[in-house]
Amino acid sequence: MTAYASSSASAPSSQRAAFLKAGHWPTLFASFLYFDFCFAIWVLNGAMAPFISESFGLNAAQKGFMISVPILAGALMRFPLGVLAQYIGRKNAAMVEMSLIVAALAFGFFYVKSYNDVIAMGVLLGIAGASFGVALSLGSGWYPPKYKGLAMGIAGAGNSGTVLAVLFAPPLATKFGWTAVYGLAACTMVLPMIVMWVFAKEPPDREHQSFRQHISCLFEKDGWIFSLIYIVTFGGFIGLASFLPTYFYDQFKVTKIEAGQLTMLATIMGSAVRVVGGYISDRIGGVNTLSGVLLVVAATLVACGLAGQSLAVTTLLFMLCFAALGAGNGALFQLVPLRWPLTTAVAGSMIGEVGALGGGFLPNAMGQSKQLAGTYLWGFVAFAALAVIVLIMLRRVQIRWTRTWAEKGGRARG
Prior knowledge:
There is one protein chain. By secondary structure, the protein is mostly helical. It has helices spanning about 1-20, 25-40, 45, 50-55, 60-90, 90-110, 115-130, 130-140, 145-155, 160-175, 180-190, 190-200, 210-215, 220-250, 255-285, 285-305, 310-340, 345-375, 375-405. The protein has a single domain (about 25-195, about 210-410), classed as Growth Hormone, Chain: A, CATH 1.20.1250.20. Helix 5 runs antiparallel to helix 14, helix 14 (about 220-250) packs antiparallel against helix 17 and helix 16 runs antiparallel to helix 19 (about 375-405).
């Protein structure tokens, strides 16, 4: 009995050691930190939305649009950065991007004075949203297929940057003013830049290919199927994470700082469980994991809309919803390197670009629902319906996937 317990306890330790030896963990850590800080910058306007809305007297529709602009801009910038990374390397592309982010934040600190300036700043914040495909590909590039899901889950857990934004931006905005937060955020970018420059190494999984080969996934059915799934999993995550401070502030009349703290409780679940989603998908398959995720997301979104009078119940439901969304993001990107093993960065950026557009849809849907119907319920219902449609599509296409490039359930072959 003692020997069995000892061997059971040592198994996780040996698995961790095997994982660390299988790749280059300093690069994985640098990728996580890079994505984490970029993600925090990307959702900065969402975290400060109650302050911005109060400054300019915005209505519900204007709030939704203002929050959606950085998401949409980031989605459109992902694919170009992924292509650039194929030519100059992922590490160099990350350094270029972070330098541009610092310049964008300087603009916000010195020049944002009106609602139109906030919209322009939203476009610039989109630069930070472009980091996704590069961060995940850089972090997982040193790891063999059987560890890809976990490595991408760890790098992708950088979406915990949402937690940093909603936790620190509201108190700082209260004390120094919300435009000052842009300047403070610019200073924080020095840390991931130093870590990336000193510790990261360009992975060996790089091939020199033509531009046509780089964008080939754009002309494949699977690329668009992955993107539709990602509209729900990541689009739901970034859209809700950006909109929740406004939702909690308007719906439950909490303070701006409390709205950020409540948002943090939900978003931290999605960030933490992303790693678990990749880990589970390596074992039971990304398709199986995604099927469960989509069911939970649809159910919890409708429940959130119906529980709009109870702050405690709503917060718990959002925590469950975000946990499912985080697991879904990890599961999807366990499948990407299996489907596109040689062009993971570009494929991931394309999927991220189209998929993140869903994040722009959600704040606008919520704003329009409140503006036209006087309730946020129909915004929740619309996104839940989309999750159900995507689930049906996934169950149909997975039959072909498991005949061609994946094992049953979406596991890696071999």
